[in-house]
Amino acid sequence: MSLHQAAYLLVALILFVLMVRRGRVQTFLALTLVAIGFGYAAGMSTSYVGKAFGLGFAQAVNTPGLTIIAAALIAAIADGAGATDFLAAKARGWRTRSVPLAIIGLLAGLGSTPAAAFAVLNPLRRAISGDSPRSALVLGLSLSASHGVLIPAPVMLASATILGADWMLAAQIGLPLALLLGALGTVLARTTTASGTVPAPTAELVDGERLHAPRRASFALVAVSLVLVAMLITQSLGDIASEPLGGGSNREFLLALGRPAILLMVGTGLMLLLSWFWPPGGLSEEGWVGLALTRAAGLLLLIGAAGGLSKIAQETGMAEMNAERLIGLAPAGPLALLLPFALAAVVKTLQGSSLVAAITASGMVMELVGPLGLGDPAGRTLAALAVGAGAMCAPHINDGFFWLVANAGRFTPGALLARLSLGTLLQGALAVAVLMLIRLIAS
Q1: Per-residue pLDDT tens for 311-322?
Q2: What is d(CA 372, CA 374) in angstroms, rounded to the nearest whole number?
Q3: Nearest-angstrom CA–CA distance, 366 and 14
Q4: What is the mean pLDDT of residues 39-57?
Q5: How many other C-beta atoms can be found within 10 angstroms of the C-beta atom of residue 103?
Q6: With contact defined as beta carbons under 8 Å apart, do 64 and 113 qualify?
Q7: What are phi and psi of 355, to 5 degrees?
Q8: What is the mean predicted confidence (pLDDT) over 273-294?
Q9: Which of 362, 348, 407 is nearest to 144 (CA)?
Q10: Helices 288-316 and 400-409, axial angle in degrees (round to 10)
Q11: How far is residue 377's CA from residue 379's CA, in Å, rounded to a whole number?
Q12: Which DSSP string do the residues of 39-108 spell out, in sequence order?
């Protein structure tokens, strides 16, 4: 039955792309229809499908939904205060915009989730590069590169903790590996998307004039983006359940810093204060707040529907059952690292959550590291890195991160599947190849 359910998910993905591209069905409606249809095909009752979809929708709208709203408000302030146009003019003289975005993405990948990190960086990205497909893909692939192999990113933190990896060794291997994967992502983005920028739409003030210094507003946008990324990274540190970083009340405080509601209040409030942007009627429905919420509404609905599909897929249990089928196919020697990678990749692809994939795959591998010849500290560390790399593979329509990149770069679902989903799969393949090579040399 689990194989059939996985096949139904593939059919749902194909039908969705066809409905949007050929049938011209509105994206949110098409995603909702295929999510509910998949639930029925997977053997769920009407009540169970409705409950699972609603729960997943609500969870997704909260996280990263509130973060997306925060980013939309920050972008509206940046537009109205002149920061977007000012930074765009400055960036025109740069030799390349991909490298700075890739570096920022690699750093932000240490945050709590790639979706939240992408959302808070999107206002800065669109100011530098507009709504260009290349910049969105560079940022997305860079975030994915570091989030899977660097501590304290939660995916890597979970796999390293469960498998008992050597954290220092994981950092020594993970850092150059993340740089290599980030470089591959940048090359893929540059070769698969057209050059040039698409000007970002800017907000118009009530009186049609810029009321504040664009330079000050630009500084505010950069500062707020870095502060929010730092808060997300600090929240990741809170997942380390030991003093002095993660125990007791300290841990609760660190975790709270990255909550969506806190990001919303801190990001919007700090942007207003630093830019000193107070246009007439700005907080009304007709002002910049109303404009920001209108822009974010469609994306929020897509994120919610993706969460609903992900929750339905999780409730079927097909990800775990299909992953277990791979255990009997485990190879020997350095090739044994293919198993933890494949387990995480299968779970991630079928149910949509990288963190769940890392926890599930690590739990499956935990008792197998000895038989696989990975029971030594180096073997456990390499296995944890393989799990992290696999957990970032092939995001698609059941992942909110996919829709954030699609919205930012104005990609169609089919185009992004061929770029982001395939790009992360190539990054994962390179990562596990490097890890196997390290194991071969070390042994």
Answers
A1: 999 999 999 999
A2: 5
A3: 35
A4: 94
A5: 14
A6: yes
A7: -65, -45
A8: 78
A9: 348
A10: 140
A11: 5
A12: HHHTT--HHHHHHHHHHHHHHHHHTTHHHHHHHHHHHHHHHHHTHHHHHHHHHTT-S-SHHHHHHHHHHH
